[in-house]
From TrEMBL:
The lineage of its organism: Bacteria, Bacillati, Actinomycetota, Actinomycetes, Micrococcales. It comes from the Bacteria. Signal peptide: none annotated. The keyword Cell membrane does not apply. Residues 92-109 have a biased composition (Basic and acidic residues). Pathway: Cofactor biosynthesis; riboflavin biosynthesis. This is 5-amino-6-(5-phosphoribosylamino)uracil reductase homolog. Pfam families: RibD_C. Residues 92-112 are annotated as: Disordered. One of its GO terms (biological process) is riboflavin biosynthetic process. Its EC number is 1.1.1.193. Keywords: NADP, Oxidoreductase. InterPro entries: DHFR-like_dom_sf, RibDG_C, Riboflavin_Biosynth_HTPR. It comes from Brachybacterium nesterenkovii. Residues 37-228 form the Bacterial bifunctional deaminase-reductase C-terminal domain.
Length: 249
């Protein structure tokens, strides 16, 4: 891949190889700043699909997308995702690249991210490993039912009724680098609430047609974004957008 835009301005094309050196350079580019950052990471095709013929985003994966995705997961304190996406995709051990774990580059300093699953039913797939740090986030009036159905310890089930409460609950536990990975309705709720700070969109150089939803699907809103970095690869290009403050949108 080549970095062609950095900090919002064109730069001389810089090669980033799919190895440890390239991963370290990419980690520096995407490093979390001070305070809390809520970042979304999604992959789509050039015709806007976020899932392939098998209904999963995994079928769209490619070396460029996987490289960027592995680095981003290695930087996050918490991977936040909706339960339906967890049931569809593989979320067993979302650690990111191993060569970026020691020393930790996560704001909270942990060697692996918390997996935070938003659910109203408590239906968690058996693929979620019990030794992985996992939280369930449920509407407050569903906490008891979610705890009972999931069998999760009560101290790992969080009640939150809005995107703002979800973020506040994660930050209270020391997770200020938060990466949302879907699904589209989850991203839509956080975007409409003005709580997405960054959108990292990988565009796979394929078309698939079909009825796939958009990367962000939810309440109507008018969010304005600035392009902060752009990577061009053989199989995909990866754009990083930062939300403009409301008074500049």
């Amino acid at each position: 891949m080549h970095l062609v835009l950095r900090d919002g301005a064109p730069c001389p094309p810089t090669a980033l190889t799919h190895d440890g050196a390239g991963a370290a350079a990419l980690a520096d580019l995407y490093a979390y700043g001070p305070g809390t950052t809520v970042r979304a990471m999604m992959n789509a095709t050039i015709d806007g699909a976020i899932a392939g013929a098998d209904g999963t985003s995994g079928s769209l994966s490619n070396p460029d997308d996987s490289f960027v995705f592995g680095v981003l997961r290695a930087l996050a304190d918490a991977v936040l995702v909706g339960a339906s996406t967890v049931r569809t995709e593989d979320y067993r051990r979302p650690a990111g690249r191993g060569d970026l774990r020691d020393p930790s580059r996560r704001p909270g300093g942990a060697d692996r991210p918390v997996l935070a699953i938003m659910t109203s039913s408590g239906q968690v797939p058996a693929s979620i490993e019990p030794d992985w740090p996992t939280l369930l986030i449920a509407p407050r009036d569903a906490v008891s039912a979610v705890t009972a159905r999931s069998g999760w310890p009560a101290d790992r089930v969080i009640g939150a009724d809005s995107p703002a409460e979800v973020v506040a609950a994660l930050v209270a536990r020391g997770h200020r680098g938060i990466q949302i990975e879907g699904g589209p309705s989850s991203l839509g709720r956080f975007a409409a609430a003005g709580l997405l700070d960054e959108l990292c969109l990988s565009t796979t150089h394929r078309t698939v047609g079909g009825p796939s939803p958009r990367a962000v699907d939810g309440p109507l809103h008018d969010g304005r974004w600035e392009l902060r970095s752009l990577l061009i690869g053989e199989h995909a290009h990866a754009a990083r957008y930062r939300r403009l403050p409301d008074d500049l949108s």
